[in-house]
Amino acid sequence: MNTYKEYLQEIEERKAQGLHPKPIDGAELLSEIITQIRDLSNPYREDSLKFFIYNTLPGTTSAAGVKAEFLKEIILGDALVEEITPAFAFDLLSHMKGGPSIKVLLDLALGENISIAKEAASILKTQVYLYDADTDRLKEAFKNGNQIAKEIIESYAQAEFFTKLREIPEEIKVVTFIAGEGDISTDLLSPGNQAHSRSDRELHGKCMISLQAQAEIRALQQLHPDKQVMLIAEKGTMGVGSSRMSGVNNVALWAGKPASPYIPFVNIAPIVGGTNGISPIFLTTVDVTGGIGIDLKNWVKKQDANGNVIRDENGEPVLEQVYSVATGTVLTINTKKKKLYNGEQELIDLSKSFTPQKMEFIKAGGSYAVVFGKKLQTFAAKLLEIETPLVFAPSKEISHEGQGLTAVEKIFNKNAVGITSGKVLHAGSDVRVQVNIVGSQDTTGLMTAQELESMAATTISPIVDGAYQSGCHTASVWDKKAQANIPKLMKFMNEFGLITARDPKGAYHSMTDVIHKVLNDIVVDEWAIIIGGDSHTRMSKGVAFGADSGTVALALATGEASMPLPESVKVTFEGEMKDYMDFRDVVHATQAQMLQKFGGENVFQGRVIEVHIGTLTADQAFTFTDWTAEMKAKASICISEDDTLIESLEIAKGRIQIMIDKGMDNEKQVLQGLINKADKRIAEIKSGEKPALIPDANAKYYAEVVVNLDLIGEPMIADPDVNNADVSKRYTHDTIRPLSFYGGDKKVDLGFIGSCMVHKGDMKILAQMLKNIEQQKGKVEFQAPLVVAPPTYNIVDELKAEGDWDVLQKYAGFEFDDNAPKAAARTQYEKMLYLERPGCNLCMGNQEKAAKGDTVMATSTRLFQGRVVEDAEGKKGESLLSSTPVVVLSTILGRTPTIEEYKAAVEGINLTKFAPPHKMLMN
Fold this sequence. Notes:
The protein has 923 residues and is α/β, with parallel strands linked by helices. The chain is built from 31 helices and 33 strands. The protein has a 7-stranded mixed β-sheet with strand order 8-7-3-1-11-12-13, covered by helices on one side. A 6-stranded parallel β-sheet has the order 30-31-29-28-32-33. It has a 5-stranded parallel β-sheet with strand order 18-17-16-19-20, sandwiched between helices. Strand 17, helix 20 and strand 18 form a beta-alpha-beta unit.
C-alpha cells in the first residue's frame, strides 16, 4: 500500500496549499485503488471509488489503461461493484476519449455477447479519437461481415458523433470582467516564472492575473449564476506575446465549463474579448477549447467633422468609447444572428467569431474533435465506397481569377489538404494544411505530452518531416523542478519520435539550444509549413506559426493543422544602411516607420509580413522574422535570392550534421533525411528547375511598407514606456525611440545579450567591443552587470574555434559549466560579465530575473511587465530592447550612451549589415 499512502500524504500537503488531490496518471497507484475497491471491508474503499471515478486522467496515461480494463471486467460481469453498474461503466468509458478505452470498446463491440456489443457500439459511435490500429480492427471486422462493425462504420460515415451533439444555444448571457487595460499578455494569464506548474492545472490556475482578480471573478459568478464571465482586454488586444495553452487553460478554469464530470480541472469554452480583438495565436488556442473570441471595437479613433483623426499633444489618436464593457456589464451573444447585444441594443456584428468552422469547434467542444472527426468520416466513407456526406462546413476556398499569389498563398496551395481539385487559394481561405516541421519547447512540452495522451496518440505522424523537443526555457537553472519535469518530458517525446535536446538515456551531451534557432536550422525547404510551441516560431525559411501546446500536439499526431490563409503585408527596403548601424536598428525602424505611415494603425497585426530581405542569410534574417511576433504579425516570410538561400541551406546542413555527430538522430534517421532534402533543394535551385520561392508580380497585399534606410540615423530602442499616463500605451512594442531621446544619462542597472534575437555575429561584436574598449581605456570595467547567453552550443563551438570565446573568457567573471550546472536561480549580479549556458535565460523570466525595479537594456524580445524584471516598491522595472552594441556600451557606462560615444565604440567593428536585394524578387 506504499503508493496509496504516499498519495494520501501528497493530498495532505496539497490541502495546505488550498488544492484538491492531484489527478492520477500512474498505473501503480490506480491498481492499488482498484484492489481497495474490490475489498468491501477496506477502510479506504469509499475514497478509492471517488478517485477511480472522478480523479483519473483519460487518454493513453498508464492509469487510463488500468481503468479501462477494470471497467471491461465490470461490464462482462467478471467484477461486481455495486456503485459502478455496467451502464455506468460504459458511461465512464465514453469520457475517456481514446487509447485504452477505444481498445476495450472494440473488444466488447466485436465480442460474442450481442447485447454488450450493441451497447459498446452505441458508445463507439460517439467517439472520434481513433487511430490506425483502431480503424484497422473495424475494417477487418467489416470485411469479415460483422454487422456491428458495419453499423459503426455507417455511423462514422454520417458523422453522427458530430450531428447528434447538442446544438449551440441561440443566446449566451455573459457578464464582463476587465482583466486589464491595454494589451494583455499571456504572461499575465500564465506567468513564465510559474512554468514548472503548468501541467498541474489546479495549482497553475492560482497564478492567473492576481488573487484579487480571481476573487472578483468568483464574486461575479455568484452574483450571476446563469451567466458566463467574459474576460476583456480594455483598450487593447487579448493574449499578446506567446501562444500559451496554459493561459487559455487558466481562463477556462476560472471562467469556462468542465469538459467532463469525470476529468478534474480540465475546463473548456472560455469567452474572451479585446477592444482590438484577440491575438491570432491566442485565438487559435481559444478554438482548441471550443471557446469564443470577440473583437469588441468598443473604443474607436475620434474624428473631426471632415473625417480626420483627432490627435492629442503627443500625436496619438484620441479614442472615444462606443459602448461600455465595464466590469459587471451584462451582455447577450446571439449565435444565430451573430450579434452582441446590451439588452435590446445591438452593439457589434460577431460574424468573425462565428464562422462555420468556429461554430463547429464550439459545438464539438474544441477543434481537435472536428479534425479527428473529419478524418474518421473520410475513412468510413472510403471503406463504404461512397461519397463523403457533406456534414462539416467545407473548407473555405477563396479564389480570385487572374490574381497572382503572395508567398504564403503559394505555400498554402502546395500544402493544402482536401481542397477542390484545381482550385487556387487566396487570402481568406480556411483549410487543412500538411505540416512539415514541428517544434515543442520545454515549459509547454509537458502540456503537449498531456494533450497527446488525452487524444490517445502514441507516435508521431509519418508525414511530418522532422520534429524537435527543446530544453531551452529551463536551461539556466537545473533545479529540483527541472530535474523532476525535464527527463520525464524528454523520455516521452523521444519515445514518441521527436529529436530531443536531452537524451533520456544520457548517450549524448544535452543541448539547451533555443528552440527557434534549432527549428531555423532544420527547416530545409522554403515551401515548408512549421508549427512550434512558442510565439517566436518565425523561421527565415518557410512560413512558421507559433502555436499552443494543443495545436503542436495535433500537428505531431496528425501531421496537419487547420487554419485561415492570412493576408500579407509586403515589406521592401530602399536607401543605404549607415556603417555604424546594426541590423537590429533596421528591424525596429521597420515597425516605427510602418506605424508612422499608417497613422498609428498596426497593419502587421494578424497578417503575414512578407519581407524582401533576400541578401541576408538565415541567421541574420531570423533577427527580423523573430521580431515579427512583437509586431503582432500572424507569421512572416523571407523572400530570398537563390545564392543566399543556397548559402543558408549549406549552413543548415552543417548544423544538422553536428546534431547527427552528437548522436541525436533516431532510428528513422530523421536528421539525415533533412540533409538529403536540403541537398535535393540545393540541386533544384542550382539547375533552375525550381528557383527560390518568390511571389507573383500581380499578387494582392493588404498593404505595402517601404522602409527607408536613409532615415535610420541612430540606434533605435523599443521602450516599455512604463510611466505613460495612458496605461494602454505601456508595455507595448510600438514605442520605438532613437538613442538620443535618453540624452546619454538614463541609468542602466543590467544588460542582457542573448536568447533568440542574437546570432554568432553578435557574439563577435561583443568580443571586438571589449577589445576596443580595453585598447581605448587601458582596461574593461563594467558599471552594470552584463549577462550573455548564446543561443546555441554550435555558436559557442564556432566562437571557440575562431578565438572569440577566449576573448569573452578573459573578461568574464562567470562561465557556465555543464558538468556542474546552477542549481538555483541567480538573485544578485555583480558588475561583471556572465557567460551563461546557451538558452533563453532572462528573456523567459521563469528562472533567472533581474533585480526588482531594475532598468534592463537587452537584445531580447520581451518587455512585458514582470517578464525580465519585476517592479519594486516605488520603482517600476523596465526592459528596453536594443542592439548588441548599445547593450554592451550601456553596461560599460552604467547608462545609455550618447550617439558620439556609440559611434566611437563601434568604429571598425563589422556590425550586422544589410543591403536591399539587387532586384525586386517577383515572378
